[in-house]
What does this fold into?
Amino acid sequence: MKFGVVVFPGSNCDIDCYHALRDVLDQDTEYIWHMTKHLGFYDCIVLPGGFSYGSYLRGGAIARFSPVMDRVVEFAQSGKPVIGISNGFQVLTEAGLLPGAFLRNNSMKFVCENVYIRTENASTPFTKLCGEGQVLKIPIAHGDGNYYVDDRTLKDMEQNNQVVFRYCDAEGEATAESNPNGSLQNIAGICNREGNVVGMMPHPERCMEEILGNRDGTVIFKSVINYLKGGAVND
Amino acid sequence: MFNAKVYITLKKSIADPQGNAMKEALLAMKYDGVKDVRMGKLIEIKLENKNAAEAEKRVRDMCETLLANTVIEDYTYDILEVGP
It folds into this structure.
């Protein structure tokens, strides 16, 4: 089983993702430089957070045209699991692998704090070890995390169970106060129609070890490891 | 040679936190009567193309693929011929 962490110029959570997978969870993991035109064999690809290409123009707008992205699109279309975290989520929306787009946080602030998210869809490869409705505490760190999608697409997404996480309070209520950035319907994470491509703004790779005071992020990566070991998405 | 000016704005239906911050600042500076501020982007492109129609087609393609995200943004452009 092999994980690939894509590195764009300006990625800054690539080392954290690598550490989470290789050191904490003992998985074979490699970096994939964004200029790569021929992808080796991987079972799961991670698009990490950061500021790819300085987030010039829009977050993820330029990274989406990196040579590796054609291979990532093929990989995703073959049904294999792909996760985009924070800026990686933005890259996935810009690439059209996930619906919607990101606006400036409505608070006008860069928000860096722990938030609670409620699991809305526990059947994706990255959430299958979560309970439906399980509340996770995971940090966010972004200035452009205000998720937007048009009404018609949102309706479609809800019908297909594509909302994976919503911002909520500690009790799991998705209130206006618990929405850190103004995201539509408190959306913190989504998946594609098939469920194998997941994007989330919170950073699970930043809460993997007791020494950091929080291990809630482990469930995301353990889920995909479990999935790759043979559990079906909808078992 | 053509000079293209591409203007990118948030769709009217979408709130603009940056525009709002500027509006609040202008009002705090006593610029009474400021009702709304919206912020966009101006992108200037110099391009070599045979004719205006071809230049326009390329600029429109650039807007659709990279310069604008049409989920949240609208775009317009002016293209000016500036000699050979």
